[in-house]
Design brief:
Blueprint lengths: L11 H9 L6 H12 L5 H14 L3 H12 L17 E5 L7 H10 L5 E5 L9 H5 L11 H11 L1 E5 L6 H12 L6 H13 L5 E8 L8 H17 L4 E7 L8 E2 L1 H11 L7 H16 L6 H13 L2 H12 L10 H4 L5 E5 L5 E6 L1 H13 L13 E3 L7 E2 L6 E5 L2 H14 E4 L9 E6 L3
Parallel strand pairs: 1-4, 2-3, 4-5
Antiparallel strand pairs: 5-13, 6-9, 7-11, 8-10, 8-12, 9-11
Keywords: Glycosyltransferase, Transferase
Pathway: Pyrimidine metabolism; dTMP biosynthesis via salvage pathway; dTMP from thymine: step 1/2
Pfam families: Glycos_trans_3N (PF02885), Glycos_transf_3 (PF00591), PYNP_C (PF07831)
Length: 450
């Protein structure tokens, strides 16, 4: 007799009614409902009513864990045991930002230290850039390999950064689509289950999460960012994947560039060890330390830093990136001859400030939207992207700008587009006379409690 014969799942409307009235939902009811979403037995109207009930009434930690594991298990969950990998399977996720190329450096760097990183990344949407769009600046790079190929590359190279394919967390695709059009995106239980449902389907031993705070952050306030970081660390850990969440500053672009090809150029410089103390490198290093500790590749922070430093200075991290590009269809000599492969924009101009002074503040979201308008991002999922456009050499808070020192260099398709982006950038940067310092880059660390 099947184990669930004694238990008839509640009708979807009954489950919705319970949550509408603020009642707790049993884990097995959540699981049955999510499975019904994946099987198309539950309608969009019912998903919308459910997400609105959760949005308004919240969920207990146990309910979020149940929603997360049900989302994870709604499709294929990757298994790595058969590959007998000699190290832990770890990954990172970020809530997204501007000039945030962390994944491109982090994946290869951690792999060079003995971890295995099956990184399933997204495209840019809204003001945030997408890791996949950046990688697609590299001619021939195929972000959608067959599943066997993906496993092979992870095994032979230590890292593969690809797009979400096939049957990973299919329930999330439907829930997310409905949340988008029913004003239920900003619910911490729903965001937690959405992010983790997808990530944990990769069969991870450990996860690190980069939650942004500031004017370019996904969450509207620092309190909400903290709440999300805590929720993700605790829910994932309770769901069986030890997770640490870092709260990091996104009150200005993280790297001194924003776009696709321009960020690949910066990635190569970072991997060659040319920008050891830049802000993007500080965040990447901190996440890498957490990954090595969580993956039990090192005993402590000091050991992690030593190992990471060696992987960078020896060229091992750069070599892993080069191998990943080659294995996924990109040029074999990309590291050496990247200039001849990356697209360059027809119009490249310096953007000078209207007055001289010190950079006080950024509207980081506006900078991201300006890159989108240049053609470097998308407002709709199916839009195509111009890899050559964006900004490089972006100033930082506290920098002095004048007629000699521009705010950035704009890379654009046409003179008109360059002029428009220049105006948008000037409007996004506040300049004053006072000395200015940025917010603390690494703000808090939340280690999940099971």
């Amino acid at each position: 007799m099947p184990s669930n014969a004694s238990h008839h799942a509640l009708l979807p409307q009954e489950l919705i009614r319970l949550k509408r009235d603020g009642q707790p939902l049993p884990a097995e009811e959540i699981k049955a409902f999510v499975q019904g979403i994946a099987d198309d037995r539950i309608s969009d109207a019912q998903i919308g009513a459910f997400t609105m009930s959760v949005f308004l009434n919240g969920m207990s930690r146990e309910e979020v864990v149940a929603l997360t594991t049900a989302t994870r298990d709604s499709g294929h969950v990757m298994q790595w045991d058969s590959l007998n990998l000699p190290g832990p399977i770890v990954d990172k996720h970020s809530t997204g930002g501007v000039g945030d190329l962390v994944s491109l450096v982090l994946g290869p760097w951690v792999a060079a230290c003995g971890a295995f990183v099956p990184m399933i990344s997204g495209r840019g949407l809204g003001h945030t850039g997408g890791t996949l769009d950046k990688l697609e600046s590299i001619p021939g790079y195929d972000p959608y390999p067959a599943p066997e190929r993906f496993s092979d590359v992870v095994k032979s190279t230590g890292v593969a950064i690809i797009g979400q394919t096939g049957n990973l967390a299919p329930a999330d695709k439907r829930i997310y689509g409905v949340r988008d059009v029913t004003a239920t995106v900003e619910s911490i239980p729903l965001i937690t289950a959405s992010i983790l449902g997808k990530k944990l389907a990769s069969g991870l031993d450990a996860l690190v999460m980069d939650v942004k705070v500031g004017s370019g952050a996904f969450m509207p306030t620092p309190e909400k960012s903290r709440e999300l970081a805590k929720s993700i660390a605790n829910v994932a850990t309770q769901a069986g994947t030890p997770t640490t969440a870092l709260l990091t500053d996104m009150s200005q672009p993280l790297a001194p560039c924003a776009g696709n090809a321009v960020e690949i150029v910066e990635t190569l410089a970072l991997l060659r060890g040319e920008r050891a103390n830049s802000r993007v490198m500080q965040v990447t290093r901190e996440l890498a330390v957490e990954m090595l500790i969580a993956g039990k590749l090192v005993a402590n922070r000091e050991e992690a830093l030593t190992k990471l430093d060696k992987a960078l200075t020896s060229g091992a991290a750069a070599e892993v990136f080069a191998r990943m590009v080659r294995e996924l269809g990109g040029p074999a000599d990309f590291m050496e001859r990247s200039d001849s492969y990356l697209a360059t924009a027809p119009v490249i101009q310096a953007v000078y400030p209207e007055q001289s002074g010190i950079v006080q503040r950024f509207d980081t979201r506006a900078v991201g939207m300006s890159v989108v308008e240049l053609g470097g991002g998308r407002l709709r999922n199916d839009a195509s992207v111009d890899h050559s456009v964006g900004f490089s050499e972006i100033v930082e808070i506290g920098d002095r700008v004048d007629s000699q020192r521009p705010l950035a260099i704009v890379h654009a398709r046409t003179e008109e587009a360059a002029a428009r982006a220049a105006a948008q950038l000037r409007a996004a940067v506040t300049i004053g006379d006072a000395e200015a310092t940025a917010d603390t880059l690494l703000q808090e660390t939340f280690r999940g409690e099971a």
